[in-house]
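User: I'm new to structure prediction. If I give you an amino acid sequence, what do you actually give back? Let's try with this one:
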Amino acid sequence: MKKTILYFVIVLSLFNQLKAADKEPMKYGKPDQADLEMQVYSPDSSAQAVVLCNYGYLDSRQFQFVHQIRIKILKESGKDFGNFFVPAAEKTTVRGQVVNLENGKPVVTKLSKEGIFIERVTRNNYRARVAMPNVKAGSVIDVEFFYQGLPSYWEFQKTIPVRWSEIILEENMYVNFRKNITGYVPLTVATSDRWVASNVPAFEKESYVNNFENYLSRMEIEVASINIPGSYYKEYATSWDAVAKTLQLDNDFGLQIWGPNFYMNDIEKEIKKATTEPYQRMEMAFNAIKKFKWNNKNSIWPSSGGISYTYNKKAGNCTDINMSLVILLKKLDIEANPMLLSTRDNGLLPQFSVSFDKLNYMAVQAVIRDTVYLLDATEENLPVNMLPERALNGRAIVVFKEGHGWQDLTPQKKNKSNDYFNGTLNPDGTLKGEWMLINNDYAALNSREKFKSYNSEEEYLKSVESNTKGLSVDTYSKSNLDSLSAPFIEKMTVSLKNSTNKVANQMFLCPFLFDKYSENPFKTPKRLYPVDFLTPIDKKVTLNLKIADGWVVEQLPKNVRMSVTDKSASFTYSIVANENQIQLSYRLLINKPVFIQTEYQELKLFFDELVKKQNEMIVLKKV
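Assistant: Good question. You get back a string of structure tokens that encode the predicted 3D arrangement of the chain. For your 623 residues, that looks like this:
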């Protein structure tokens, strides 16, 4: 696609008029003396570094883009900002330098070829990454990138302050490119071809955020069409229909799925021989393709070898694997279609515009008797109708042989867990008993993946012990490790030291022995972007505790039931003492994964009370 764009634009855009740009905000290689001498950025004295200028200019006559960036390193902790990447092209010219003041005089260190890396991100997008030399507190970094084409995005805001960010995109009469601006920082200048943001504060990362880059102030840029009257016309992303049509007709995509296919006939015959029931066939096909090894690469395009390579090597990227699943399901007479999306680390698909380049992942939508099933064969621990967490990101476009549809990716399964502890509190303050964990859905997926990430059960149990101070695991058993539709159950006999505090004749015990919030994850007084828990949450804790002879309950936390106004978040806490027995029942429900900004204040207060409750003590008295 890019070669076609460049060819026609470079040859025919010579007819365009060159517009006079405003004065460039920086000149490469010539930082101001004041910036060299700067020790603190006055608008944000805590800043480790600051982007002094981020400037981009598209010369539409030549369809060439120049990107200059200047960064000041203020603290030793900010040296990592000397290593960064920007969107670029396959053939990008890069030059850079680092200036340090030594004895009051500027000393320049040039960026060498060894510090420049051009990396392919998707089929049509590249990035240039630089590792600047001799970076230290006080350095001023200048880098210039030059290439033909458009950047895929432009950031006005970063995780450090930005003093000036400007992009100029001259209009081209033959190339129509789409611009989509997002974020919460108002622009200083916004015209049809020039956008400026000045004195932009650093983006502050907070807990429970979908990819923070979704909320940075930025512009996403994509070629929508090329139109040379009487000679050439090509649509790329003028509409989602155009996106679907491009995919349907592509040799590497649509023709692989809907064209003749001679692979996986052996798997097809085996499954057809085993059962005629469609759901069972789907499960068997799903499990067969899950034996293929995902190479941890995301793309909506198959690898260079195509489906034949994937079948022979039993490995590939997400599309190699899930396209194989689509083809196999079709061979088994099950309706199945590719489902394309943007992963969480790639950002949300735009709500009101079209973006081909934003699509970077493929999963599968299957339909049996009007019931929709979502499938992803890249991970062995995923059951039917659960997508990996990276794919839970807004919506997906489902590409049919003709036309397209949409699939909501809001998770229907929960992060559901039940923790049970049945034990004894000894006179010395130690606890002994049985700890059982029953995990379902996403909690089960995470637990299975964690267990299997260790080389042995012994290594796994060491990690369990290290997560809770004073915990010692004496015996361990597990159930349903590979039965993915069933809960993953772990049982342990354990002893716990350091879980109580003794003061004179009193003993203090927090009943949340293994997992609790030590502080409210929501600290800022207001929030500009949504809270994202990823999935709904259903967490239960049950404690049955026998108190040692010679001790009695002096004080228990009060029972409480609390929820936000619309009941989308709630918790119950019930604790009773009967002679020498204490029983606690606790449940936290988060019924939706995303809370919008206007719900933040109430959610913050809710977690204030939740954290307080989880950290309240049972008070025992010696008799």
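You can read the tokens as a compact description of the fold. Here is one thing that stands out. The chain has eleven helices and 36 strands.
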